[in-house]
Structure formats: C-alpha cells, structure tokens
From TrEMBL, chain A:
NCBIfam families: HEQRo_perm_3TM. Coiled coil: none annotated. It is a multi-pass membrane protein. Residues 94-387 form the ABC transmembrane type-1 domain. Its main location: membrane. The chain crosses the membrane at residues 28-46, 58-78, 90-115, 136-157, 190-209, 221-243, 255-277, 338-356, 368-390. This is Amino acid ABC transporter permease. It comes from Thalassobaculum fulvum. One of its GO terms (biological process) is amino acid transport.
UniProtKB/TrEMBL annotation, chain B:
Pfam families: ABC_tran. Belongs to the ABC transporter superfamily. Keywords: ATP-binding, Nucleotide-binding, Transport. The gene is bztD. Residues 23-257 form the ABC transporter domain. PANTHER family: AMINO ACID IMPORT ATP-BINDING PROTEIN, PHOSPHONATES IMPORT ATP-BINDING PROTEIN PHNC. It comes from Thalassobaculum fulvum. One of its GO terms (molecular function) is ABC-type amino acid transporter activity. This is Arginine ABC transporter ATP-binding protein.
UniProtKB/TrEMBL annotation, chain C:
This is ABC transmembrane type-1 domain-containing protein. It is a multi-pass membrane protein. Belongs to the binding-protein-dependent transport system permease family. HisMQ subfamily. Residues 241-431 form the ABC transmembrane type-1 domain. It comes from the Bacteria. Keywords: Cell membrane, Membrane, Transmembrane, Transmembrane helix, Transport. It comes from Thalassobaculum fulvum. PANTHER family: INNER MEMBRANE AMINO-ACID ABC TRANSPORTER PERMEASE PROTEIN YHDY, MEMBRANE COMPONENT OF AMINO ACID ABC TRANSPORTER. The lineage of its organism: Bacteria, Pseudomonadati, Pseudomonadota, Alphaproteobacteria, Rhodospirillales.
Length: 399, 263, 449
C-alpha cells in the first residue's frame, strides 16, 4: 500500500494524531514532559527554600565550615578540641564512623564465616544452633539490639571500682573498656623493620615453594613455615634488642581508670551489635555461596584422589568465593551505613556530631545534609567500583 | 533397530583379559535409608576386562560403580580394589581413588580452571608431578582425546562432547589402572555421543580395565567382554555380549532388550 | 531375536531386607547426625551443654525468679535481687507499648481499624473467591482514608468524608461478593442483576443497575459516617506498636507500586527518564535511612512554602516511602532481569503494547520470582521503622526505652527490650516462613514438569 500512497496528497496532510503515534516523537515527548516536570519541581523547591531562608534570616554557603564549632566530642580518634572548626568536626565524625565500621566488619566477617560453616555442618545440632542464631538476629531490629547492648548490658556494668579485669591488663566497667597502650622505646624501630622483613620473607618463601613445586613436584608446608617466620623473626629481633617496648597499663586512680587505651561503652555496644547482627547476614551469604558449588565438584575431586582438605582449598573455595564475595561486600556497605545508628546511644559518629549537633548549632541544614550524604555516597561508590572490578576479575568464561 | 545393523562393519575389538583380579565385590549390600538399593552383589573383575552395566533407572547400577571408589558407602559385604580393602581407613580410600578414574554423566569439570589446569590439578597435588611434566602429559592426553587446541580455554567455552573428552583426559592424567564411566553420554546431544564413544573405544583398545554404565548397546556389542544386566538392586544376568544380546536367559532381560531396541 | 519362551529363567527379585539396625531409626539418625565420629560427638556434647545452659538461664530469669506483680522496679529488685525478670513493669506498660499515648477511651478506634483491615483482606485466603484483585486494590486504595479518619478523629473535610464512605461501600461490596459466591452465584454482579430482575433486560441497563446499587450503598455509608463524633487525637499522641505498624504499613503498601515504576524507568530506553530514575534510586540506596529521616525533618520544611508547617509524622512517612521505593526498585529490576528475553519477544510478537506486555506477561512472572526478596524487604522495612524513635516518634522501641526511664520503673531495660524483640521476632519470622510457603506453592509451578 505504501507504494501507492507515495506522493499522494494524504501524505502531506499527515494529521497530528498520526505524528503523535510515531515511536520517536513519543519518546522525545515523554522525556520532555518528565524533564520539564523535574525542573519545575526543582525550581519550586529552590524558590521556597530561598524564601524560607530569608524569612528565618539564615545564610547559605559553606563559609560556616571554618567557623568555630565550640562543642566538645566525647571520644575521638583524631585530636579535637572545642575550638576547632566545623570542618574538623566533619573529619572527626568520618574517622569515628570508619573506625567502628572497620572493626565491626573484620569481626562480623570472621563470625559470619564461622556461623555459615556451622550452618552447613553435618552435625544436626550444630547446624540447628547456627540456624536459630541467624533467625533470631535477622528478625529483630538492629536498633533494638544496639539499645539492648548499651542500656541492658554495658550501662549495667559495675563502676570502675568493681570492674571486670583480665590479667590486670584489660578492664571492663560502665565507663568503657580499657587496654594497655603500647609505648615503643628506643630501638623498637628494629622490631618494626623485622616485621616488614618477615612479611617479605614469607612472601619470598611462598614464591620459592610454588616454583619448586612446579619444577620438582615436591610440596612445601608454606603455611607453617610462613607462620614461623612471621612471628619468629620479629620476636627474635625484639628480644635481641632488649625488649624495647613497654605498656602503659590502665590503672584505677581515684574513681576512674587512668592510662592505657580506652573505648567508651557506646563504642562497645555499637561494635558488638553491628558485629553480631551483620554476622547473621554474612553467615547466610557464606552458606549460600558454598551451597552454590554443586556436589559433583566434590565428587570429581575425590575421584581424582584429592583429599578433603585439598578439595576444599583447590576446588570448592575458589568457586564459592565468587558467590560469597559480592553479597559479603554489600554487607560491608551496610555495616558502614548502619553505624549511623550510633546516634541513638551517643557514640559520636559522623551523623551524631555533624548532622545533629553541628546542624542544630549552625542551622546550615542543606549544606550539612549534603556533605553527610556525599560521604556515604562516596563510600558506596568506592565499594561498588571494587565490587565491579572483582566481578570482572572472577567472571567465569562461558560460551 | 536390529542387532545386525548395530554391529555392521564394526568388529569386536580384541580382548586383553589377564587372570589378575583387580576388583572383587562379595555380598555387598547397601541401603538408602530404608530402601535396599544393592542386594548381595558379587562381582569379580579381571585386569583388562571391559564390562558394560545396563538396566532400568533405579536398578542400582550407578550406585554399584560409585561404591567402587567410595563416593557411596556400602553397609555390608567386602570390596577389594587392587588388593586394597575398602574400609573406613582414609589411607586405603586415598590409595584406591588414586588408581581408579571416574567419568561422570554431568562432566563435573572445574569451571574456574582451564582445560589444561583441569588435567594437571591432580597430578601436581596428588602425585607431586613437576608442572612441566604434568603439562606435557596433559597435552599428550588432550591429543589423545583430540582436543589439544582447546587447552587454554575454560570448560564453559566448550561443547558437551568436548567437555566429556576433557573429563576423560583429566581422569587418565592420574594414570589409573581402572576407569569407571557413569552414563558418560546420557547428557550429550546425539551428534556428540560418537566423539565420546570413539575416545572410549580407543581407551579399550589400549587395554584399560573399564566398567561402563551406559545404554549405548552398540558400544557394548563392540567393546564389552561382559555385559551385566541389573534390576532392583541385583545382578539379573551377565554374559558375553554375543550371548547376552542374541540369547538372553532371563525373561526380565528379554523385556528390557525389547524395550531398548524397539525403535 | 529375544522372544519369551517356556525355558526362560524367570526373574524373581530378592526380597528387600531391612537395613542394619544401626543405620536407621533413632539409633541410625543419632549416629549419622550427632555422633558420626569422635569430633562430631564432641561438638554434639558442647552443643547440648550450650543449649542446656541457655535454656536453664532463660528459665531461671524469665520464669523461676520472675516477678509478675509489683508496683515499682524497686519492689521487683527486692524480690529478684537482679536474678529475675520484672514482668510486672512490662504488663503495666503494655498499653503504652501497644498504643503509645493514644487516649485509653479512644483505643477502640485503633482496634476497630485493625479488625476491619483483617476482615477486609480475609477473602484473599478463601479458595472460592475469584475477585482477589478487587479485594487487594480496594483495601490498599481506600482503607488508608477510613483508617486516617478513625485514627485522627475530629472534623473531617468533605474529601475525607467521601473517601471514608467509598471505603465503607467497597468493604461491603467485597463481603457481599463473598456472600454471593457462597450462595452459589457466579459473582456479586450477577446476584444483583438477578435479584433486581434486570438480568434478562437490555445489557445497557446492567451498568445503571450496578451503579445505582453502589450509589445507594454510598449514600447510606455517607449518611452513617456523618453521624460519627470522634474526638480528635493529634499524631503526637500516636505511638507504640500502632505507630510502628502505621508507618511500616504505608511504606510497605506504597513500596511495590513506586518501586515498579522506578525500576521500569531505570530500564527504559529513554535516556532522560533512565537517568532520573537511576539517580533517584542510587542516591537513596547509598545513604543510611537515618540521614533520609533527618533530611525529611530538617530540610523538607525549608523546601515547602513558608506558610505550610507539615506534621512530623507526615514527613517521616514520606521519607520512609522514598527509602522503601528505592530499595524495592532494585528488587523489581532484579526480578525483571530474571525473565527470559523470549517472554518479551513472544509478548511483542502477539501484538501487545508496552504496558499490556508488562502487566499481562512480564510482571506476573517477575513478581513470583521476587517473592522472597520482596518479603525480605518488607521485613527489613518493618525493622527499619524503629529508626523513627531516633527523631523522637514514640514507636514501640522508644516506648520500651522510655518505660525504663520513668520514675517508678527506672532502670528496667532488659525486660521491655526482650518483649519488643519477641514481638518483632514473631512478626518477622512468620512473614519469612509464609514467604517460603508462598515460594513453594506459587513459584514452584515453573521448575517442575
């Protein structure tokens, strides 16, 4: 039919309806409508905001960052004084957030692996215990767990005078957890160098053992020898240089402990809650990852004469890791995000010191909220980039 | 199809049976829960002998050969492989598995390793073979199964038939003296079956002791020294392929043969 | 060839023997699952001692040494010496945990709304009922208005009154439909037509009969609801489990539709729409919920015109909805990706346009694939609702915390938290078990042949 209509008058007077039915026209039209709507909303919000700011006599912009914060922060990793700037508060908050997240991630991952493997145990009882551990922790809110640890456990600990002690070095009481602080003496640098050397030597041994195995077929107990070097060399050097390391022990002076390194109860509660809660999710990731490797792989390895330990190391774990690592990494991201619940128990993380205290004081809501979001978004972006890189790296080649 | 068409132009390859016993099962019983899957199995396999095991699904034939390298645990009776008793002693199990190769229906290649690495993994880590030596041996085997050019690829990049040939090469790399085949062609497209069977025939010609669970009756006719028919967990009948196909003794065997050869 | 003859050996299978006694039954089970070897046995013994210890401690704390009646926490402590639970405080505060500061005499309104919702949705699980879409859609779209009017009380505007009347009429429709089905009519529509005697008159009249019936119902409902005199209860007084369920309920019911729209936008071929949807999803997924809540409470008032001063609860609900939509969008996207490309092609080949293809072919399949993730997301949302306590809404968690900071019950922390944890556990655990059940019954249709 198209041929007949070519050049006919109907073609010129193509109606608007027909024109609107064109796929491409539709697409442009829809997009234009959405774009205009978004811009209109944005403009509306902007106008309202500037009116609001004017009405309340507030300024906008990032000049406030250099202003003096003027409040104190209960516990910081970075040095901080009340006279420091708001920008300093921002950095202090970021470091406090990162430190509790990192420690929680390390412990939660370890615990998650243990629970996930227990969940797969052939022993019915052990796997049931792990299953209930996971179910109970996953089905109660994290904030509840944080408050529970803080109010019902760490706040009810005895005062410093009656604190729980371990070997007179570690103390736990309602003011926090105290550990000895290492104080390096003269010549401790040699031990540090020895540690670096030991790491290099272990690596060298591993490379050599691999090479020798490839050349002669002989296997080498790299793990145990490496462990020996890793610990033996620094200890030898440490002793040879006259043990140049002393510890600043925490000790009860008056009503409180002095010296040592301490973390407040809020840190302990937050750490414990984050670690236990997320370990349940990580256990599920580990379980699902290991189950994703079919039983045929184990059978094939056994039929080739590989012993169970080697089967695990050479066949099962390399494959399971592909399935375990991605959910594991997104769980790490969740730990960082959930550390923001610190605000409920007064641990001074980024949200607590910056989004709450600084915001209330300075009134720069938009700038502060944007800066906090920027931090979390950059962490998220970094982590997802790492994840994409890993996925590319291990992607199985298929037809 | 009739049996005449099956063996047209294909001579039975010469058998190389010695009188040395390599596998001996006596009064082997196995249960899955309450289900009696192997009933009083007695079986003696001589060095160089090629045995084809057939039977309806659920008859226990796969379980039988999986007991020979202890992928399944039997509960009663004795299994002797290469003179080693199969018991709970891990050393014995290791020794048996080193000398018994197995090829699976679903290939079970290691997807994270290349074809070559699949073939060298066990020699390097179990036999302590130097890598260069293992590589050389693996390449020889890959040539024998006619896919040396795929050595650097990953299993996921190969066709089913190619994967199964890699799996055979992988087992041979351990230099076993017994090979077990658990329905090696059942998961393959028809046009790939023959390339795998060709490799298996070649293996038979080299004098390997083979136990093959399969429904490929042409292969049985051409290669087997003995055909075993199993049903309901026991050996119903065993005989030379000529007798088995042309003159079956049991009514159950006849029924099975008429079903499998009916079309 | 092989023909059955007289001299055949007849195959008689050997009888199946029972397995060796130590491999089956209780003994076999114990050997296999608990005492497979020395190490296994050790693990079992450790596990049993652990369980016994925990169970004994819980029994001692929660039952044996617990105090059920007391007037203050001091009294409890005097009896328990700190070794037992003080359930007396929990039961005293129970009303607060459930309703917050909602006035006692008005709490029947909350209960009534809960009962109405349960009854409204009940036909979902009746095997005979066909119009399940009607049940679900009517409840999701109009129940919130009825509930809002019941919860808030006070003078309702005309719009709210109309919606309340519509909700009541639809509720009646759902149950009349159930009644009609069980009386043997194919549907309520047919029942109405038959009873009114219009079944055999012109088809064009049917519409008017049905509309008329609905109109009569609406007028009755409107007249009835205008007689209500409900005392106003400001949202500041809402609290406890009730508030938790209000926030998470709205979040849950809005999450799926908005998540589907965002996911479709993100998969759209139109770059502008795709970019906006992707940015929205990624922005709100990468920041913690608490920052979104803070944003809602501190920034949203700045964004709105000067004269509007929105209710804090409304701001929080908006924040929760945004958060839930962003997360749901990714789940929906995952479900859409799991659908075979052939399904799209087949739908297009049949001449379905985009929306018909999505609603008739793709979404029904994708939703089934997504059930576990969707329910997991709902559970997560219910748990995350507790974050509203941080910005000062008295949900169940803040009530639990507050009960231990009150004069008479000062120091009572463990018991309220255990109680709250139990409430969440029961609800979330049942949801996840139900989703596994659904997965087996609905989703199972695909894998099997």
């Amino acid at each position: 039919m198209a041929v007949l209509e070519k050049g006919s008058p109907r073609r010129q007077s193509r109606s608007i309806i027909e024109w609107l039915n064109d796929e491409r026209v539709r697409s442009v039209l829809y997009q234009a409508i959405v774009a205009i709507a978004v811009i209109a909303v944005a403009r509306y919000l902007f106008v309202n905001t500037s009116e609001n700011l004017q009405a309340r006599g507030m300024s906008s912009g990032f000049d406030f960052l250099s202003g003096t914060a003027g409040f104190s922060i209960a516990w910081t990793v970075l040095p901080y004084e009340a006279g420091d700037s708001y920008f300093r508060v921002y950095l202090v908050g970021i470091v406090n957030t990162l430190i509790v997240s990192l420690v929680a991630i390390v412990f939660a991952t370890l615990l998650g692996f243990i629970m996930g493997i227990m969940r797969l145990s052939k022993n019915w009882l052990i796997s049931k215990i792990a299953a209930w551990y996971v179910e109970i922790l996953r089905n109660t809110p994290l904030l509840l767990q944080i408050l529970f640890w803080f109010l019902a456990v760490f706040s009810l600990l005895p005062p410093p005078r009656g604190s729980f002690g371990l070997l007179d070095m570690f103390f736990l009481n309602n003011r926090g957890f105290y550990m000895p602080a290492p104080v390096p003496g003269a010549g401790f640098d040699y031990t540090m160098i020895a540690i670096l050397l030991a790491i290099a030597a272990t690596y060298a041994v591993a490379v050599w053992a691999k090479k020798r195995q490839m050349a002669t077929g002989q296997q080498f107990h790299t793990f145990w020898v490496g462990l020996g070097i890793l610990f033996g060399l620094p200890i030898l050097v440490f002793l040879a240089t006259g043990s140049p390391l002393s510890f600043d022990f925490a000790a009860l002076k008056g009503f409180n402990f002095q010296g040592g390194v301490s973390v407040p109860p809020a840190f302990c509660a937050l750490l414990l809650a984050l670690m236990i809660y997320h370990s349940a999710f990580m256990a599920e990731a580990v379980r699902a990852g290991i189950l994703s490797v079919s039983h045929g792989q184990t059978e094939a390895a056994y039929s080739l004469g590989l012993r169970p330990g080697m089967t695990l190391r050479l066949v099962i774990i390399p494959q399971a890791m592909r399935a375990v690592v991605p959910p594991m990494i997104s769980n790490w991201m969740n730990v960082v995000k959930n550390s923001s619940l610190a605000i409920a128990i007064g641990y001074p993380d980024l949200v607590a010191v910056y989004m709450q205290t600084s915001l209330n004081q300075s009134g720069h809501a938009i700038e502060i909220v944007a800066m906090v979001m920027l931090f979390y978004m950059s962490v998220s972006l970094t982590i997802s980039m790492a994840l994409n890189y890993y996925n590319k790296l291990v992607q199985l080649k298929e037809r | 199809m009739s049996l005449e068409t099956l063996d047209s132009g294909q001579e039975h390859i010469a058998s190389a049976i010695s009188d040395e016993v390599v596998i001996e099962l006596s009064k082997v019983n196995k249960w899955y829960g309450e289900f009696h899957v192997l009933k009083d199995i007695d079986l003696t396999v001589y060095k160089g002998e090629r045995i084809v095991i057939c039977g309806p699904s659920g008859s226990g034939k796969s379980t039988l050969i999986r007991c020979i390298n202890r992928l399944e645990e039997h509960q009663q009776g004795d299994i002797l492989v290469n003179g080693v008793t199969m018991d709970t002693n891990l050393k014995n199990i290791d020794a048996i598995r080193r000398d018994v190769g197995m090829v699976f229906q679903s290939f079970n290649l290691f997807p994270h390793l290349t074809v070559l690495e699949n073939c060298t993994l066990a020699p390097i880590w179990v036999r302590n073979t130097p890598k260069a030596e293992a590589d050389r041996l693996a390449m020889q085997l890959l040539e024998r199964v006619k896919i040396p050019e795929q050595a650097a690829k990953y299993p996921g990049q190969l066709s089913g038939g190619q994967q199964q040939r890699v799996a055979i090469a992988r087992s041979l790399a351990m230099n076993p003296n017994i090979m077990l085949f658990d329905e090696p062609t059942s998961a393959l497209d028809p046009e790939m079956i023959s390339e795998v069977l060709d490799v298996m025939v070649g293996l038979a010609e080299s004098g390997m002791t083979m136990l093959v669970v399969t429904h490929e009756m042409g292969f049985a006719k051409r290669v087997a020294d003995r055909v075993i028919f199993m049903d309901q967990g026991e050996i119903v009948e065993q005989n030379t392929p000529g007798e088995f196909f042309n003159n079956p003794k049991s009514d159950r065997t006849k029924l099975f043969l008429s079903q499998i050869l009916a079309h | 060839m092989a023909e059955t003859t007289q001299d055949d050996v007849v195959f008689r299978p050997k009888p199946s023997l029972p397995p060796p006694p130590n491999t089956v039954g209780v003994v076999g089970w114990l050997r296999k699952n608990l005492f497979g070897g020395p190490f296994d046995s050790l693990l079992t013994i450790v596990g049993v001692s652990l369980i016994a210890y925990v169970a004994y401690s819980l029994y001692q704390y929660g039952i044996a040494n617990a105090v059920w009646e007391a007037d203050t926490y001091r009294e409890c402590l005097d009896v328990t010496k700190g070794n037992g639970a003080c359930w007396a405080g929990v039961s005293t505060w129970m009303n607060g945990y459930m309703y917050g500061r909602y006035p006692d005499v008005e709490q029947w309104r909350v209960n009534l709304a809960g009962v109405v919702l349960a009854v409204w949705l009940a036909p979902f699980w009746f095997p005979k009922i066909k119009a399940k879409i009607l049940v679900g859609m009517s409840a999701v779209l109009t129940f919130p208005f009825l509930a809002a009017h019941l919860f808030l009380g006070g003078e309702a505007g005309l719009f709210l009154q109309v919606m309340v009347a519509v909700a009541m009429t639809l509720f009646a429709t759902v149950w009349l439909n159930v009644g009609a089905s069980y009386l043997g009519y194919p549907s309520l529509r047919v029942a109405l037509l038959r009873l009114s005697g219009f079944e055999n008159k012109g088809d064009h009249l049917h519409k008017y009969v049905l509309l008329g019936a609905f109109g009569v119902g609406f007028v009755i409902a409107f007249a009835y609801q205008s007689t209500w005199e409900l005392a106003a209860v400001p949202t500041q007084n809402w609290g406890g489990l009730f508030l938790t369920l209000v926030i998470s309920g709205i979040g849950i019911s809005s999450a799926l539709p908005s998540g589907i729209i965002l996911a479709l936008g993100r998969r759209s071929k139109m770059p502008v729409i795709r970019v906006f949807c992707t940015a929205f999803i990624e922005l709100f997924r990468s920041v913690p919920l608490i920052t979104i809540l803070f944003m809602a409470v501190t920034m949203m008032p700045l964004f709105l015109p000067v004269e509007i001063n929105p209710d804090k609860l409304v701001l929080v609900i908006v924040a929760v909805c945004i958060f839930a939509a962003a997360y749901m969008a990714e789940i929906v996207r995952g479900g859409l990706q799991a659908i075979n490309k052939g399904q799209y092609e087949a739908a297009q080949a049949m001449g379905l346009n985009y929306w018909k293809m999505m609603t008739l072919i793709i979404m029904p399949q994708a939703l089934k694939v997504m059930i576990p993730n969707i329910v997991g997301n709902f559970i997560g949302l219910l748990k995350d609702t507790t974050l509203v306590s941080i910005i000062g809404l008295y949900d169940i968690l803040l009530m639990a915390k507050a009960s231990g900071q009150d004069g008479k019950w000062l120091g009572m922390h463990t018991e309220p938290f255990l109680f709250t944890a139990a409430v969440f556990f029961v609800v979330c655990f049942c949801m996840s078990k139900y989703s596994q059940h659904l997965e087996r019954t609905i989703g199972g249709g695909y894998g099997r042949r």
